[in-house]
Amino acid sequence: MSNERVVRAALFLLAVLLALFGASAPLRAQSRPGAPASDSPIDAFAELLAESTRTRWAGQRVPRRPPVARPLGATLRIDSVLRPLSVHADPRVARVALAEDVLDALEAAADLLRVTGWSVPAPDGGRGGTDGFDLYLADLDGESLSVRPDAEAPLSFEDSVAAHAVVDPDVDPELLPACVAQAYAEAVLFAVDPAEAPPWRRATAVWLAWMITGRFGCDEEDVARAMAAPALAPIPDLAAQRGEDGATDDGRPRTGAGGAAWLALLDAYHSGGTGRLVRDAWQFARQRTWEGHDLRGSPDLFQVVRAMFPVDSESLDDVLEAVAFSRWQAGTAAAPSFALRAIPRLAAPAYAGPFAWASLPRRARVDAPAVRAFGSGYVVVDTREAPPGASLRVWLRGEYGTRWSLLAVRLDANGRVLSQLSAPPRRLPRSYLVVELREPTDHVLLAVTNLGPRLPDADSVDVNERAFEVVVDRGDAP
User: Fold this and answer.
1) What is the dotted CATH code of the domain comprising 351-475?
2) Rounded to whole angstroms, what are the CA distances from 445 to 337, 352, 368, 426?
């Protein structure tokens, strides 16, 4: 008997058994919603079998952002001759010369992103009366720029959303090219992965603006604040985005722009300041939602970055520890690479100390603000008076519920590294190091990083902020 006849016979026998035992009605009840009803037990069984084998997405989902209307009154339009770019302006608030300057900056940003491997904004279907990307000059009531979604790109295989940008014409003229580059970059990121959390998009756009123009877009103040407050999370969680009490130290919502500094440090450490790490991470995070309304939210960029550093070679913990020290050196002549020296030192990181050698033992507690996931705290010990052969003993005691990294670096008077030593992260938040001062050491930097019990997620509330204390004492000379 052929295989086809065997299958038919088995299905017929199954249909008879289902009819005899009254199972056809329950099977029909489980059929796909909206499908036409069938009286055949075989059809009902086939539908049930198909439903059981159909792929379903059970991961995180994020809501789609609704389209936002474009500004009214922008009757002035200037189109690029060679590129699909247009600037729209309201003649009552923006001069023609300003629109021309904005178009020049927009063309420069588009060219640099294209040659460095980034995509272009998704087509908007002719909204705004053009076939390309539209930037509007319009009053934003206190904001400098806004990038707003239009609609999904219908011909894209991956999730992609078209967007337009609005820049306030009263932006500081010195920052205008960087603001335009930031706006264009954020529209590009809407096309790459619209499901990514807004702070990730803002941080990347600000970082790209710096890569293009040398200025951190319209958000240099936020970047300077992030540099000066290393305990903050590099990418704010949902509570910080809402400005909820306890999530920020000043009660203001955090847009994520300060994360541009962290991305610059991460890229300088891994890719030598070329931008490859961040660009590749966004490409790996691209996804396709094939069913349902809300977008697939994972893998997000934190998950992608962790996957880019496998444990068997260099784990994400090692990278976070290195980036914590890179923050300390960024923008100084002592930085070991050109990429680190090129990062503007808008503000120096806050730290405890310096503690004089004669004053030891000393205790330093870092809890205001508490250190959030992937944030760091610093303690400086002045060792210029240490006798030859002396050592520094360091105890770390962190709060439970997370993992801690402890790094000790010996530095000379110019801030150059003499040696460094770290304690491996442990589930028990206790670490101990002995730093031998074998050669003249100007000071010792202690960097403590909250590695988190799990990866942060900018789409949820992170409750892993913790305090720690460091005890330092003199070791006896031999």
Assistant:
1) 2.60.120.510
2) 19, 10, 20, 21
